[in-house]
Amino acid sequence: MLNNTNNSPLFYEYYAQWVDVYKKGAIREATMAKYLMTQKWIQKLAPELKVSELTRTAYQQILNDYAKEHERQTTLDFHHQLKGAILDALDEGMIERDPTRKAIIKGKTPRAKKIKYLNQFELHTLIASLDLSEEPNWDWFILLVAKTGMRFSEALAITPSDFDFARQALSISKTWDYKGEGGFLPTKNRSSVRKIQIDWQIVVKFSELIKGLPEDEPIFIGKSKIYNSTVNDVLTRHCKQCGISDISIHGLRHTHASLLLFAGVSIASVARRLGHASMTTTQKTYLHIIQELENKDVDLIMRTLSGL
């Protein structure tokens, strides 16, 4: 890396080289894209700033300018990506003090995000409308996501060998690179590698569907490139034909989790089934549902105590 403090490089150039040396080939393409976007923002916000000029004030100004157009969580992610490179510059003697120390993270007020999901009747109506032919199609894909809560890329990567019909289990250990050139990729995180239970209907239906299919090849991947929008369009048509709420494939994942929570399944079990890294992620994502359940619990507690 560059370490001549007498000829200090521009900050965005140093960061670009740091990403190339330390991140390229070591992280997922989606994560790499975020680092490259951060690089573009540094060049935009501080095009003439040199590494040797990185003071706490200069760094805080970069964060403040970035926060004007982004929510606080996005600004925090931006800060973390910059901090890795800056601490390495500190170790190399390019700067004398850590300019990221006591950084203040600001950001725009986040927009209210309402998760779209189907209720139990709507999901039942959707599943009843699916055209489950003898060959794999997107209707089969929709059924599998609805019944398992898998991510889009995880469901694309499912092969016949991932099913254990005797134990009514499905192994999720990889994803499909639908945004790139295709092929298997690792899961989003370690917690995403999991085995989930599948109901007897999935066992019966899919045991017939995958007969004769190559054991280690994706069930739903053909010769043409897969787009998320293609499958969402199929789902949208079904929703409109059924007269139910219009949701996306990711909305089916939310539907799956929501129905389990309303049925009384613990947050810990739902988190493991979804492949969340921690229960905190589940709690944040489904906060509105958890609050509804807590209100029901209060009513139940009061009825129970009143009967004593």
Automatic annotation (TrEMBL):
Every Tyr recombinase domain range:
113-300
Q: Which UniProt keywords apply?
A: DNA recombination, DNA-binding
Q: Per its UniProt record, what InterPro entries does this chain match?
A: DNA_brk_join_enz, Integrase-like_cat_sf, Integrase_catalytic, Integrase_recombinase_N, Tyrosine_recombinase_XerCD
Under the GO molecular function aspect, what terms does this record hold? DNA binding
User: Signal peptide position in this chain?
Assistant: none
**Which SUPFAM superfamilies does the UniProt entry name for this protein?**
DNA breaking-rejoining enzymes
PROSITE patterns (alphabetical): TYR_RECOMBINASE (PS51898)
Q: Which GO terms describe its biological process?
A: DNA integration; DNA recombination
One protein family per Pfam? Phage_integrase
What protein family is recorded?
A: Belongs to the 'phage' integrase family.
Protein's name according to its UniProt entry? Site-specific integrase
Species name: Anaerobutyricum hallii
Q: What is the lineage of its organism?
A: Bacteria, Bacillati, Bacillota, Clostridia, Lachnospirales
